Amino acid sequence: MVNLADVARQAHVSQMTVSRVINHPNLVSDEVRDLVNQAIKAVGYQPNRIAKALVNQQNYVIQFIVLEDIATVEPNYAILLLEIAEVLNQKGYTLEISTILEPNSHVDGLIVSGWRDSDLERLSAINVPMVLYGQAPTWYDLPYVDVNNRMGTSLATTHLIEAGYKKVIYIGMTMALPFVREREQGYLETMAKHHLVSRTYDVSNHSHDAEKLIQNIIAHLPKNTGIVCATDRIALGVVRALKAQSQIPENYGVVGFDGVFIDQITSPKLTTIKQPFRQLANTLVSNLLNQLHHSELKTELIQPRLVKRDSTRQV
Amino acid sequence: MVNLADVARQAHVSQMTVSRVINHPNLVSDEVRDLVNQAIKAVGYQPNRIAKALVNQQNYVIQFIVLEDIATVEPNYAILLLEIAEVLNQKGYTLEISTILEPNSHVDGLIVSGWRDSDLERLSAINVPMVLYGQAPTWYDLPYVDVNNRMGTSLATTHLIEAGYKKVIYIGMTMALPFVREREQGYLETMAKHHLVSRTYDVSNHSHDAEKLIQNIIAHLPKNTGIVCATDRIALGVVRALKAQSQIPENYGVVGFDGVFIDQITSPKLTTIKQPFRQLANTLVSNLLNQLHHSELKTELIQPRLVKRDSTRQV
C-alpha cells in the first residue's frame, strides 16, 4: 500500500507539505502543488477519503443530478459528465450520478442539470451547496454556470453579416427555456445593432422539422441569406435541405450552436458556436468547491467561440 | 424526516416487512415488494445507506469506469450511463463515475467500459466484483455483458437478402476490437449460410470516411446492392453518398447498427440494429449484484432488434 511518506519521498518534500497539498491545495504555491501532484501520480497514491473526511468534515462526494428525460438526452451530456468526473477525480472527489432529485445525505454538493423552471422552487428548498448547469431566473438566487448563449448567437450573426450575406434569419426552438430566449436575444440584438431587419422562425429541436421548414420557405428565401440556427441539430436539417441544391456556402450560409458530435457528422462540415465543455466542467466544480469553503454564491457565463468551417463563406 | 414507520403505515405492512424489502428484496413476493416500493416513493423515504451498510457490510456504491478517451465518446455512453444510474437508484445503490482505473476502496463493485485488450491484465488483478461492458476474450475469465453483435449483423444481412437486394456487402471498421470482429462475423456467417459471395470493406468510424469509400466504389457497385454497416455513423456517410442520386432504398439498401441518436438525424431515416440499452443496464447491474450475493461469474449477450425504416425496401 502506497502512503503519504512514499509521495513525500518521491517529491522530496515533507509529509506535512503533501498533506497540505491534498487537504488545503489553496494554501500552497502552484509549483509545490504541481510537484506533489506529479509525485502522487507517479507512485499511484490514493488519498484516503475517510481520513480526509475526518479532518475536513467533508465526504468528498459531489452528486450530478440529470433531471432530463433520458430519451431526449443529447451527446452534450456525455461530454459534460465525463469532463466533470475527470476534474473531480483529479481533485480527490468522487462524482455520483443520479436521475432523481433526492440528494444523498452524504454528498458535499450538487450539480443539477436538465431542470425546468418548475423544479427551481424545490431546488431552492434543498439545503446543500448547489450549482445549476444552465442559466436560471435570478430571483431564485441559485448560482448557475452556463455558456454565454447570447454572446454565442451574437458571434454567429456577426460572422454571417461580415461574410457578406445580405439577409440574416434565425431558426429558434419552440421551448420556453432561458437558454432558448437568450440565444434568440443574441441574434435580435446584433441585427438591431447593425440596423438590419430581423426574421425569426421556430421549430422543434429536430433536424427533420428544420429540413421541412426550409423546404417550405425556400421559395421566399432570397439567395445570399445567412441562417443562424439555435442548435447544431437544427443546422443539420437546414444544411440537408439546402444541400440538395448545392447552395452552401455560396447562396446560403449556415451557423449552428453546440459543437458536439453533430458538427462532426454533417456534410459540409458545420460552422458552429462551440460550447467549451472542459471549461464549463471546471467552472461548475470550482464554483461548488468555493461554496463549500466560503459559502460564496456566484453565477458565471462562459464565453463560447466561433468555429469556422464549410457551411459559411470564408472571410 | 420520513422513517421506516411512515413507510410501513403507508403500505399497511409491518416495519419488519419494509426492512426486508429494502435489505433482502429477493426474499419477498413481487406483490409485497411493489406495494412497499410504492409506499417508499409516496412518502419520500430514503433508506439510510450507512445503516444498510452496517447490516449487510455493503456500501451500496457501484463505480462506473469509462476508460475511453472523452473526445471519442459517442452518445451511446450518455444513454447507458443514465440508464444504469436509474436502475441503481431504484435499488438503493449509488452510482459513481470515474475516468481512471483506480477503484475507490469503498465501492461494492465496478462496471468497466471503454477498455482495450491491454487493460484486461490489470482489470483481472483488481480484487473487486466487476462486470465489463463489452465482449472480452474468455481466457481472462472476466464476466461481461454486451449486445449480441454477431446476431445483430446477421439480422441486418438477412433483412437485406429477404428484401431482394442481389448483392450484399459489409462496411466494417479498422479497429482490432472484439465487437468489431463479431459484427463482421455475423455478416460473413449469414452470407455463407445463404451461399452468397461476401465482400467486406473497412473504414474508420467516421461518416466522412464512409462517404468517401462509397464515392470511390460506386462505379463498381451494381444497382440492387444491400449495404450492412458496422455502425450508424458509417451508415450515415453511406446514406449521404448514395442520397445525392436518390437511390435509396430502390437501388441500394442500407442498414446501420446502434440505434442511438444518429439514426434519428439521418435522411432518409435509417433501418438499424437497435442496442437495448435499458436491458443492457439492467443486466450489467443484476450481474454485478449477483456476484455480490453469490460470487457468481456470468457472461450475457443481449439480443438486439432490427428496426425497419426508410433506408431499406419494405418486405
From TrEMBL, chains A, B:
GO MF, one annotated term: DNA-binding transcription factor activity
Protein's UniProt keywords contain Nucleus: no
Xref: SUPFAM superfamilies: lambda repressor-like DNA-binding domains, Periplasmic binding protein-like I
Domain HTH lacI-type: 2-56
Pfam families xrefs: LacI, Peripla_BP_3
Superkingdom assignment: Bacteria
Keyword Transcription: yes
InterPro entries in UniProt: HTH_LacI (IPR000843), LacI/GalR-like_sensor (IPR046335), Lambda_DNA-bd_dom_sf (IPR010982), Peripla_BP_I (IPR028082)
PROSITE patterns: HTH_LACI_1, HTH_LACI_2
Alphabetized UniProt keyword annotations: DNA-binding, Transcription, Transcription regulation
Protein name stated in the entry: Transcriptional regulator
